[in-house]
Amino acid sequence: MSDPTHAPALRATRLGREFGGRRALHACDVELPAGRVTALVGPNGAGKSTLLQLAAGLLRPTSGEIRVFGEAPGTPGARRRTAFLAQEKPLHAGFTVADTLRMGRALNRGRWDQDAAEQLLTGSGVRRDARIGSLSGGNRTRVALALVLGKRADLLLLDEPLADLDPVARHDVMALLMTEAAEHGTGIVMSSHVLAELEDVCDHVVLLKDGAARLSGDVQELREAHTWITGRADPAEADGLPRSVDRGAVVHSAVGGRQVTALVRTPPPADDGRWITETPSLETLLLAHLRAPRPAADEEAAA
Ligand SMILES: Nc1ncnc2c1ncn2[C@@H]1O[C@H](COP(=O)(O)OP(=O)(O)OP(=O)(O)O)[C@@H](O)[C@H]1O
């Protein structure tokens, strides 16, 4: 659905959320354009689920602000336009699959798309008369995702949607989500720890670390703004990198045997033939940023 207000699908401004005085998110700024497929990545405890729950209106911020399509999460407008899949996929264990889809229809009168919901279950062998409590974790995930897709929302907030699925199901469900995004312009924000899986599907990425966004933007632009260099370690340099590399631009480097690899913010070092310079894959880019040490200013602020 087009958005007459041109508001971003999600905007977090200095967003903070504490639990018993402990920061889950702190001064977090994120902006996601509408209709993009965004990977939300970060270490355990980085704040990914908290951000998604705030966007879904299930939590309130302790500081700062969050908006979906310009509206506060939890308001009728924002609820209508978003669908949330929680990490633990809460469903009524005593309901059958058919009951669950009927509930989806009842809760989303006038908008419910039974075909969109059913496509998640097609070929899965999930019987419509099976009780939710009797399903495997992966099949419960399929039913939970069916509720999300049937809602026909403009922004899907999916917390580790593929975590319980077997490799073939992961592939098929991801393909379905991408088709949904392409055919309906649906925005998707998907948290995941499987970086390789995100490579060809996400056009936007947000990397959370210690409760704040460390990297955020268009995947292609971010990849092109970095260089991956590989070469024989220079024994004259403590870090093994060529002298021409600006150390302030190094995100992360590692020496393994005689070889050194590094992710640097472009421009690449002068090519003296001893170094291979490439545009990093999304996985390489994210791994380096995940391994990068915490900025000193942050450590002071958190102390
Ligand atoms: N309901 C809660 N009560 C207390 N602390 C919480 C609660 N929810 C989250 N936290 C804390 O907030 C921080 C961020 O948690 P969150 O679940 O958002 O991280 P995450 O990035 O989703 O982690 P994971 O990758 O392990 O799922 C953690 O320190 C966590 O222990």
From TrEMBL:
Keyword DNA repair attached: no
Domain ABC transporter: 10-235
UniProt entry keywords in alphabetical sequence: ATP-binding, Nucleotide-binding, Transport
GO molecular function: ATP binding
Database matches in Pfam families: ABC_tran (PF00005)
InterPro entries tied to this protein: AAA+_ATPase, ABC_transporter-like_ATP-bd, ABC_transporter-like_CS, ABC_Transporter_VariousFunc, P-loop_NTPase
Protein name: ABC transporter ATP-binding protein
